[in-house]
Amino acid sequence: xxxxxxxxxxxxxxxxxxxxxxxxxxxxxxxxxxxxxxxxxxxxxxxxxxxxxxxxxxxxxxxxxxxxxxxxxxxxxxxxxxxxxxxxxxxxxxxxxxxxxxxxxxxxxxxxxxxxxxxxxxxxxxxxxxxxxxxxxxxxxxxxxxxxxxxxxxxxxxxxxxxxxxxxxxxxxxxxxxxxxxxxxxxxxxxxxxxxxxxxxxxxxxxxxxxxxxxxxxxxxxxxxxxxxxxxxxxxxxxxxxxxxxxxxxxxxxxxxxxxxxxxxxxxxxxxxxxxxxxxxxxxxxxxxxxxxxxxxxxxxxxxxxxxxxxxxxxxxxxxxxxxxxx
Length: 327
Description:
Blueprint: E1 5-11, H1 17-29, E2 33-36, E3 39-43, H2 46-61, E4 65-71, H3 79-110, H4 115-137, H5 145-160, E5 181-185, H6 190-203, E6 208-212, E7 224-226, H7 242-249, H8 255-274, H9 285-300, H10 304-325
Parallel strand pairs: 5-6, 5-7
Antiparallel strand pairs: 1-3, 1-4, 2-3
């Protein structure tokens, strides 16, 4: 279903540069993105509408001109392109916080017993929590990067408190799933492929996989584990995609898994949004590159089994890069 949109436009003279800066900062703070020239965009909603109307009144009170328009479509800008503008803006914000978190984490690792370093981490975490909360408020079309950042901050808290990642027992234990056959729908895409990679690399290296054709009954029994399909053992849960659910339930929080969370979710969300539209949606550049590689693997693979083996190599390569470069 298409969103309704709010478009904000202001007209200011060259002498009103200070007001122009003030307006742009306010628009950025409420999550608006630049559409074209002096046009700024927000999804329709009571809170967004109030913010823009207040801003328009301030502009006019200081001698400028401003207008807020409500519209159901954006002309030659598609729904996917508009949502992509918001995802790229928020992902850039998250990336800044991720970089600072990585730097703080590295300093903590080098100076674990240093009280000054630990105070620095605590101060950063307080700032990061406030910043993350503010970003989540304006993350209108989440790509998953915010959720991955939340996991990274939680890990940093555990390290600061001297607790390991595995102190809290996960909901599922790998030993309870060893030697079982995992079952999912045929023609897998990003979430199913990445999820089974996670199973093979983090849960059971010898796990078998069976693809079910449309209309096939879901395999039941102690020897089977179903995923990413209706009524499966592991599937979407709330806003979490299957990859995220598996990582959460098995307590998998290493760097590679956290980085892949955002990529899998961004591609999966874009695929759901654009199913049948034939359009290319906006998504983070990293996710776009992985999607392009995956689409290429689908074209050169003769069947699902061959696609799976090639996708395993793709995720292995990404994981090796992420674990080498760190957070």
